[in-house]
Design goal:
two-stranded antiparallel sheet
Length: 171
């Protein structure tokens, strides 16, 4: 399920080096220094199936993966194996992925990439113009992203501001 973080203020921390040798620096809040209200953002966990323990051991499990949406960008990551930051204005279409997939992990070619921990909860995101993504640290073009998430309908609604019907068609 996506969770919205409300507007809040962060403190900027200042490092104090006036400590005896061997105790390391001390972090203290810098008086009066704050950042204005944060933009609302939503996080959608990647959906995992039977291979969750294996993927977690490999560093691509739920702790290091997800879809983060803020007013300007959509960020997708699956541990060290995949990461992308797509401008919201580049999202050309979003719908439930109709087909079945027979692989788990990060797979793709020619601009279409599958990022999944399970075979269910798949959402297809069309991107125009194509965005840059990184697979195993190598830059790739991203035109279509198929991603498995715990709450596919909520992700679709968040990316389309509710302008999608039950069949994934735009109103």
């Amino acid at each position: 399920m996506g969770t919205a973080e409300g507007s809040r203020t962060r403190q900027i921390w200042q490092v104090s080096r006036d400590r005896p040798w061997g105790q390391g620096p001390e972090l203290t809040p810098h008086v009066g220094a704050t950042i204005g209200p944060l933009s609302p953002s939503q996080t959608f966990p990647i959906r995992y199936g039977l291979f969750r323990p294996l993927l977690s051991a490999l560093g691509v499990g739920p702790r290091f993966s997800g879809v983060d949406i803020d007013p300007d960008r959509v960020r997708v990551r699956m541990g060290w194996s995949f990461r992308a930051a797509v401008a919201r204005r580049s999202i050309a279409g979003v719908r439930r992925h109709p087909g079945a997939v027979w692989s788990i992990g990060v797979h793709g070619w020619n601009g279409q990439w599958l990022v999944n921990g399970g075979a269910r909860g798949l959402v297809s995101v069309s991107i125009a113009p194509p965005a840059r993504a990184w697979v195993l640290g190598v830059p790739v073009r991203l035109r279509t992203l198929i991603v498995s998430v715990e709450s596919p309908d909520e992700l679709i609604a968040a990316l389309t501001d509710g302008g999608v019907d039950d069949h994934g068609q735009h109103d």
